[in-house]
Amino acid sequence: MITGAAVATVDPSGTEHRRGFVVVEDGVVAAVGPGDPPPGTTADRVLDGRGHLLTPGFVNTHHHLYQWATRGFAVDAGLFEWLTTLYPVWARLDAADVEAAARAGLARLALTGCTTTSDHHYLHPRDGGDQLAATVEAARTVGLRFSPTRGSMDLGAAAGGLPPDSVVETVDAVLAATADAVARFHDPAPGAMVRVGAAPCSPFSVSPDLLRQSAAQAAELGIRRHTHLAETADEEEYCAQTFGRRPVEVLEDLGWLGPDVWLAHCVHLSDPDIATLARTGTSVAHCPSSNARLGAGIARTRDLLAAGVPVGLGVDGAASSEQGSLADELRQMLYVARAVGGPTAVSARDALRAATVGGATCLGRDGEIGSIEVGKRADLALWDLTGLGHADLDDPVVALVVGPTPPLALSTVEGRVVVEDGRLRTTDVDRAVADLVAARGRVLARG
Ligand SMILES: [Zn+2]
User: Fold this and answer.
1) Contacts of 160 (CB under 8 A, 6+ apart)
2) What is the tens place of the pLDDT at every residue in 310-351?
3) CA–CA distance from 422 to each of 110, 356, 426 (Å)?
4) DSSP per-residue string spanning 116-144
5) Domains of the chain, CATH where assigned
């Protein structure tokens, strides 16, 4: 039980309590409300939340955890040059490297208020071991709810694509690996800790055949679909030249839009593109820091939200967004939207909604997580607003979004403590750092 905290429930009405309480029982929210808990309420453990803000745990909707060992490359390059610099480096990763990178990336997410994350693992070097299994293992260790996607590419250099041929696969191999990942890791039950999705990489690194067949397979397996879309002007030009269509039109032609699809980036959208996403119920994973780092542009979040498109937030891979903290993306979302759209383009509460229930909607889990409501999973973040960065900010949600990232007093996943007093309780961070440094050393030495 947490008492005395400001509570931003992010429920459909946006209910907030200046001083409220939450009771957790068996991993689920049993009660939430203003003031004090009803007389007679007992708990094994009671936390005094005065001066703190309680929010739903953040949901990260786009990441490439393997990239944590390869940060700081091609710092001044755009997407295509950045990719061609990094593909040969990533081609040398093995499963042990990926486990270390994923554990470090997940630790960073946990320490900055994330309780659920997806991952898009689209690069499977030959002889690189079972890298998807390595990310699932890392998520189990750190204790985050996890939506790994079995990514893929089938357009290598020999077929006119950007990636080296050693990291692309045949369509049949991709479909077999996806079915295998679902059989081994996917849990459709409520409160599941692992849900697998299918995720061909992008329209410029996969064939239309792979997109078509993976859509059919995902429907058969009952899993969600994810890909990158409309990230750069170069991609728009590629789609115009290759297909005579805009990126959103390419996906629609191939049956790749719908309520079971969430798309990373969506920076370069026309008005009809936005209407198409709204009509089809497709969600967007907005990655403002990565888009800025690669000079890709600024997504039209105000227009997407106004059209009713579900918008979540993503940190993207750490090689294109080195800070890897979803808490920072709330501020970044607000800032970049206002930089082009004026002071009312995105509010602090819009950003909090995107980071929580918006992300849960992207992952198809808004019935289970993303808000603090009775019956939902107890995935919570308790932010300490009593210190230097926040003590004079009266509105706790504004303090969280536009102030520095507050110290994380507590986070829980399914009611289990993951972070307490700013420290990860599930795994040793010093060891994660040492393993990360060793993994980076191995990858560079193989070059
Ligand atoms: Zn990405």
Assistant:
1) none
2) 999 999 999 899 999 999 999 999 999 999 999 999 999 999
3) 10, 20, 12
4) EEEEEE----TT---HHHHHHHHHHHHT-
5) 2-56+370-424 (2.30.40.10), 58-362 (3.20.20.140)
Closest listed residue to residue 248, CA positions, set 290, 210, 287, 278:
278
CA of 351 to the centre of ligand 1 (A): 20
The CA 229 to ligand 1 mean position distance, Å, reads 9
What was the pLDDT predicted at 92?
92
Distance CA 284, CA 298 (A): 13
pLDDT digits (tens, 9 = 90+) for 293-302: 999 999 999 9
pLDDT at 168: 94
- Condensed to tens digits (0 to 9), the pLDDT of residues 428-444 reads 999 999 999 999 999 99
Secondary structure (3-state) at 330: helix
Q: How far is the centre of ligand 1, averaged over its atoms, from the C-alpha of 228 (Å)?
A: 6
Residue 344: burial class (beta carbons within 10 Å; 0-12, 13-18, 19+) = exposed
Cα(64) to centroid(ligand 1), Å:
6
Per-residue tokens: 79: 């997407």
